[in-house]
Structure formats: structure tokens, C-alpha cells
Amino acid sequence: MPVDKMVDLSGRQLRRLPLHICSFRELVKLYLSDNNLNHLPPELEQLQNLQILALDFNNFKALPLVVCTLKQLCILYLGNNKLCSLPLELRLLQNLKTLWIESNCLQRLPEVVCELSLLKTLHAGSNALRALPAQLRRLQELRTIWLSGNLLSEFPPVLLDMPFLEVIDVDRNSIRFFPSLAHLPGLKLVIYDHNPCRNAPKVAKGVRRVGRWSEETPEPRKRSGAVIEITKDFFPFPLLPCEDNSQFTVEMKT
């Protein structure tokens, strides 16, 4: 048994988890990132003290159900696999506070995630999400949600009903309009860059924005309607004359 109660087998090109690891019943942290794993042995259930499990950068097409028996898990890394769904048994992990499911094949956020009542951080970027379930508002402990690189065409309405959120990341989606976020008292950071939007989200004072117009007011400037007549002699470079030889005019915005 390692003295620090941690085993790190990341980047070992493993295809199977060595069974003797499952005999370390006091193990708290197990890192299996960046291997070739696509299943886990049932003996993993013996690790009932495990709090951190890293399975990211493997070949899992489905989450092994044995993971859902590890009820002390606080942090679960599942990113960069081939997951299209999550099992209903995930609801058994009621101590889970951080869930990483980015860079998988999820077309919708599994509703079972909404049953993880203590979840504080959700990383679900780089999937194919088009919307979020309304049940997400149940997660009143959720503070950060990362949704960059998905297929969202509108800002998820459910996030407007989650005043406890501190960080919202919707970078690299297809959102064309942002509603006001000024009513979210807990918000500290919103990342909305690389969207085809025509406005920046309104936020309360002190909230940091990352994206177009982030340093400007999202309100469109009013036009004064003033028109100034400008002749061709005004410009230091030649201009093609109008067909009717009229003067050039420009509308000034203030």
C-alpha cells in the first residue's frame, strides 16, 4: 500500500488494470489517465475509500458500472473518451463534487447528472450538446459550468435560473444573442468568445466578461442623425465620382 494512498499509472499504455491495485483498500487517489483501457475489473469495488478517479484519455465507450459503486468519489475524470451516455447508476455517487466529461460523444447532457446534488464543477465542453435539461436547476451547489465547443444555438435558459453560478463558459458555440445575466448575483466570470453573437451579455458590476465587446457597453450607441456634407477635396486619396456627380455624404454616429 503506497504511503500517500495514491497510485498513478497514467501514460503506461495499459489495456487492463493490474488486479493487485484493487487490494489497496485504503487507496484514496487512482490515476489511470492516458492509457488504452475500455473496461475495468469488478474487483475495483473493493476500493471503497477512493475519492479521486481519473479515467480520462482512454477508450471507454460506456462507463463501467463498477465505478458507480465507489460511493466516496468526490472527483471523477472521464474526459477524452468515447462516451455517448452515462448510466443511471451514476446517481449513486452522491458525494461527487467535480465531474469532467469533456471531449466525448454526448449529444445531450445525461439527466442523471442533475441528480448529483453536491456537484460544484461540471466540465462538459467539446461534445455535441444543443441544449441543457431544465432539471439542471436542481444542482444548487453548482458553481462552475464549462460548455465550450458544443452546438448551442441559444444561451441555455436554465442557466438564467441558477443565481448561485460563479463561472459560465459558453465559448465556441453558435449563440447569436445573449440575454442579460445582470440578475445573477453570484456570477464572477462569463466566457462567451467565438460565438456569432451581435451583443455582449449584460452583467452586474464587477463581473468579468471574455468575448467581443467585453470592454464596452453592450447597449447600442444612439445615432444623432447628424449628416455632414463632405466634398471630394476632403479626402487625401482619389474617390470615384457618383454617376450623377453629386457630393459625397457620410452619416456620423455619436
From TrEMBL:
Please give the PROSITE patterns that the UniProt record associates with this protein: LRR
UniProt entry keywords in alphabetical sequence: Leucine-rich repeat, Repeat
A Pfam family of this chain:
LRR_1
Question: Key word Repeat present in the record?
Answer: yes
Q: Which GO terms describe its cellular component?
A: cytoplasm
Superkingdom is Eukaryota
On whether Repeat is a keyword of this UniProt record, the answer is: yes
How is this protein named in the record?
A: Leucine rich repeat containing 10
The taxonomy runs:
Eukaryota, Metazoa, Chordata, Craniata, Vertebrata
